[in-house]
Amino acid sequence: MAYVNFADTAPALLFHAKPAARHGEQAGFSGLEWSVVALARRDSLNSLRAPGRIAKAMAAVFGSKSQNAIADPRLEALRRMAVYGWHRGFAVPEGEMERFFEAGFSPRQLELLLTNIGRDRAARGRRA
């Protein structure tokens, strides 16, 4: 049987502690932003691609529903990062991280987002 020392991480796991914010840096998310993260769980990686001409034509003919991007660029950057987090964990393309930071989010928020998504993914895996 293996031994794992959780002494350093146990308080954060038990109390869902947020990383401490640096001066002028936001450490958490608003309720609306957490809602975007929760809704992104159902989005596929295909929702991150812009539909091509053929996909648009097929949608017009057959009336299929495409997943639309969020109109607010800041929330869309958060949604995109959350979709990658739900599907790939911490393996996020560098360009998406740049988009996330350009939208006004901080590295601490990225860490908080991906850590919480990873924790939820692990919990769901244990229940399955």
Shape: globular
Order of helices and strands: HHHHHH
Q: Mind telling me the C-alpha Rg?
A: 17 Å
> N-to-C terminal Cα separation, in Å?
23 Å
Arithmetic mean pLDDT: 80
Low-pLDDT regions: 8-20
Major pleated sheet: none
Number of domains: 1
By helix and strand content, what is the structural category?
Answer: mainly alpha
- Helical amount: 55-70%
Number of helices: 6
Q: Strand tally, please?
A: 0
Our estimate of the beta-strand percent is under 5%
Describe this entry's structure for a reader.
This protein has 128 residues and is mostly helical. The protein has one domain. 56% of the residues lie in helices and 0% in strands. It is built from six helices and no strands. Helix 2 packs across helix 4 (73-88), helix 4 (73-88) packs antiparallel against helix 5 (94-102) and helix 4 (73-88) packs across helix 6 (107-127). 16% of the residues are buried.
